Amino acid sequence: MTIEENKTLYRRFIQEVFNEGKIEAAEGLLAPDYVLHDAPPGTPTGPAAVVGVVRMFRAAFPDLVITLDALVAEGDLVCARATTRGTHRGPFMGTAPTGNTISMSGLTMVRVAGGRIAESWVKNDTAGLVRQLGE
User: Fold this and answer.
1) pTM exceeds 0.70 for this model
2) Which is nearest to 85 in space by CA: 25, 125, 30, 40?
3) Residue 84 belongs to what domain range?
4) Measuring CA to CA, which of 27, 38, 54, 71 is 20 to 30 A from 123?
5) Which tens digits make up the pLDDT trace of 40-74?
6) Within the chain, which residues score under 50 in pLDDT?
7) Using DSSP, how many helices (H) and how many strands (E) does the chain show?
């Protein structure tokens, strides 16, 4: 795939899976042996890792939207600087719904292989998110 095709794949992944909540799209966009690096202990492997994250975030923030603020790519790697926004309407990591609107910045790098996302490294400002929830 070309660099532009890799970027398009990542944009599609964010839009369909996270923003639109089309969980079933993850199977076609992620490699069967997908690896989510730095995942918490007990996180499933393969595409199920992302499915769990998406379900958790969309249950807590039903109006979740991830905006890709910058997207760069080289070879088989795509890197994104993104902002996640939403309203805290469901339980999240032990915190009852607050109704607070959140904005969380993050950096993600993915590796594309065979037309699918094969690996990802995600660093979000979770400390900032927790502060916005009043913890």
Assistant:
1) yes
2) 125
3) 3-132
4) 27
5) 788 888 999 999 999 999 999 999 999 999 999 99
6) none
7) 4, 5
